[in-house]
Here is the input.
Amino acid sequence: MPLPWQKGSVDSEVLKWIQRVPWAPDGGGSRKTEELMLRSFRHQAASIPAYGAYVRHLGVDPARVKDWREIPPAPASAFKSHDLSAAPTEGASGAVTFETSGTTISQPGRVRLSSTKLYEASLLRNFQRHLLPDGAKLRAVVLGPSAADAPTSSLWFMVDRVVREYAGETLYLVHHGDPRWKAADDAFRMAADTGEPLLLLGTTLLFMAYFERLRIKDASFRLPAGSRAMDTGGAKGQIAEFTRAEVERGFEQRLGIPTGSLINEYGMAEMGSQFYDDGLIAAHERRAPMPGKEIPPWVRTRVLDPETMNERRDGEAGILVHYDLANLNVPLAIQTEDIGRREGDRLFLEGRLLGAEARGCSLPFEEFLKAGAP
Amino acid sequence: MSPAPVDGFYLPPALEAGVETAVQRFGPPHDAVEIRLPIVAPQDVTRWIAALRQARAEHLAQRPIASILRPLERVVARFLDPKDRARRLLVQTVAVCGRFSAPMVERALDDAFEPLARGGFRKWIASELGAVSALDEPAATREGVLRRATGPEWMLQIYAGNVPTVPVWPLFSALLLKSALFAKTSAQEPLLAPLLARAIAEEDAELGACVAVVWWKGGTAELERAALAAAPAVLAFGGDHAIASIARQLRPDAKVVLHGPKVSLAYIGRGALGRAALPGLARQVAQDVALYDQQGCLSPHAVYVERGAPVTPVDFAAALGEALEAASTSLPRREPTASEAASVQLYRAQARFEASGDPKNRVLASGSGTSWTVICESGARFEPGPAQRAVRVHSIAGAEEFERAVGPSIRFVEALAVEERGPRRAALAARFAGLGIPRIASAGALQRPSPLGTHGGVRRLSPFVTWSTVERSKGAGASPRAPVKKASRPSRKGSKTRARPRRRSR
Here is the structure.
C-alpha cells in the first residue's frame, strides 16, 4: 500500500478528484466519486479503531461492501463520545483539531485531522465557485474572529483560508469574543464612499445583531454593486428568532446587498465540505437561480425516512446522511439530526421551527448541556 | 369537512367584545384544527389586567373561600365526567392537534382533576396554609399563632405546552388565593386553560370575570414586558431561555416561582427484582415512560437497576421493552415530528456506537419505527434522552453508584421512583430525599403527583401568600409603651406546669 500522499495512495487520489471532478450532477456520470468512497471507507474501517469496531458491531464486512450506500454512517454525536480520528494524537506539522457543537452527548466533539489538504481543497473550490464565480478579488469584512482567535473552530479556519486565498485586505470584527461594530460602520461607510465592493463573511446571528444595532440607530449603508455576503448558521442550537426572509431584508435594507448576492452556507465541523446557495453563480451564468443548495460532486447525500430509516425518494423530506470524500482522517459517512430533502444535486434544509418554542418542564438534552451541567 | 374554529383564549365577556381574532391552524395539514386566537397589543394587556383587578376587588377579594370552592368543585366534577361537553371537546381537539393521543388526554384529565374532587381543594389548602379559613380571617395555628393568608392582587401565569394538564392546578391556585389571573398559554397547547377558564365562568360568572387566558407568540417582547413589569406574582413554566428572559423582567418585589426544565428517574433495588414481580414492575415503569411521550418533567429518562438479584438489569431491560411495546397500543403515542424521530434515530445510532466498544451494552428498540427505545448499559450516568419513549437502563452496584452519577445534576431531577422490598425501601427513599430530590414516588405513580406535594420542591399556594399575623392584645387599656419584662410571665391561660423562665430569642 502506498504511503500517505504518494502517488496511488487514497489520499492523493481523493485530493486529485476533489480538485478535478466536473461540477455536474454525479460528477458528469463518472462513478469515480463512489469508487473512491468505497476505497476511503475501507481505509477508515481499518485506521479509525472506534469506527472500525462500530462497523463490525453492525455486522458489516468492509471488504464486502460494494455500494457506497452500504457504508455505515457514524452518528454525528459519536465525535463527542469517541475519538473518531485516524490522525496520530500528537499532531505533526499541519495537524489541526476542530471542536464540534450542537448535537447530542456531553463535551464538545473533536475532529482531528493530520492534514487539512483535503479540507482546504474542498472548501476553496466550493467557495470560489459559489461566492467568487467572476474571479473578483475583494476586500473582506469578517463578522467573526480570526482563526488565530478561534483555533478550534472549523468555520473560522475556513473563513481565514478563503480570505487568505481570494480576498484583499481583511478586517476581523470580533476580538476576544467582542464584536467591534464601530469598525464595521467605518468599513462600510468607506466602501460606500470609495465604490469598492466588499466580501462579507459571518454567522447569521452576528449579521442580525449588527442589523438590529443599525435599526436602533436608524442607520444603513449602500455597499457598492458587486458586494456580496456569505452567512452561515454558525453555532447550532442557538435560538434563531428570525426567518430567512427577515435575514434577506436585513441585508437588503441595511447594507444594500440584494438577495441574489447573499449566499447562505450550511456546514458542520464533522464534515470537510459545505453546501451553498446558487445566487451568484446563477447571475454569473446569466440564468435564474436554482432553489436549494448545491451538493458538491465529491459529496453524496442520502435522505432517510425518520421512522424506518429507508431511503426516501427524490423530493421527500427525511434525515440527512452525508457522504463526503473530503473526510479521510474521520469517517466520511455522517448521520445527522438535520431534516431536509434532495432534488437531484440540490439540497433543501428544513427549518427546525417547531423546536424553537420552549419545551416546558421536560429537559431536552441540548438544554441540559447549555445549563452547564457536567 | 372543517369544524368551527375552537377558541384558543378566554376573556371575560366584557373584555371579549371588540377583540380582534385570527384563526390559526394547528396540527398536521391533513387533519388540522382551526383555533381562534386574539390579536394582542401591549395596551390590551394593560387594559385587561386593569379590568381583572377591578373585577377581583368587586367579586373575589372579600368572598368567603367556601363560596369559591363550591363552583370550582362543580368544574372539577364536569372535567371528570366523560360525557361532559368541555371535556369531550378538549380530548377531541388536543388529539386532532397531534399533541397527544385521545387515551392519553383522558388519562391526563383524570390524573389532574381526581385529586381535587371529594374535598381535595380543602385538603390542599389546609396542607399549605394550616386552615382553610385562614383565607377568610385570622385563624389559629396549632402553636396558637393567629394568622390570615392573603393572595396577590393578581397573578401572571405562563404555561408550557409539554403536558396537556400543566395549567390545571396553577389556574385553580390563583382563585383559591382570591387572586385575579392573567395567564399566557403555550403555542403547543393553547386549548386546555381557556376551556377550563370558560367552564369556571359558566359555573360562576363572578369568578370568570377575574380570569383571562390568552396566547401570544413567545418572545413578543413588548407584551411580555407589559405583563411582567406589572405582575405582583408570577408562576412560569418554560425552557431555559424563556425562564431566563422572564427572570430578567420581573418586578423586584414580585412573588415568583419559575419552573425550568427537569426530568425524572427510577431506582430499582434488588429486593424488588423477583421473577414473579418482573412483568408488573416493568409495566409500571413503562407506563411512567409512555405517558405524555416523555415530554414532562415527571417522565423517567433512566432506570437504575441493582445487580445481584435473580432478575438481572438485562432481564429488566427486556421486560421493559416488552411493556413499552404493549403500551404502544394501549397508550398510543402521537406521531413524532421528523426532527423528533431524527433525534431518536441519532440516539439509537449513538447507543449502538457505544455498544460496539462494550459488549455488555444492549440497544433494544421497537421492530419498526421509533415508538420505543431501551438502552441497557453497565454503570450509572445521568444523561437525559431525546424523549419519545427512549429510556436507559443502567446496571449498578448500589445506591452509592447512583448518587455519584446523579448527585452533581440533582437540580435537574424532579422525581425519583423507588422500588424495593421491605424496610429497605424506606431507607433508600430517605437516603435519596436527603439528596434534595423534590419527590420520591413509586413506579407507575410518577405521572400522578398530588397537589399536597410540591412542584420542583416548591409548594403551590404558600409561595404567593402574604401572611398577616395578629398578635393578641395585652388586655384592655394596656399601655402600648409598657416596659417588656425580660423574665418569664405566667401563662395567661393558666397552664398546669409551672412556667420556667424562657430564654427570649433575639
Summary: Residues 19 and 121 of chain A are 6 Å apart (CA to CA). Residues 234-239, 352-374 of chain A have pLDDT under 50 and may be disordered. Chain A is about 30% helix and 20% strand.
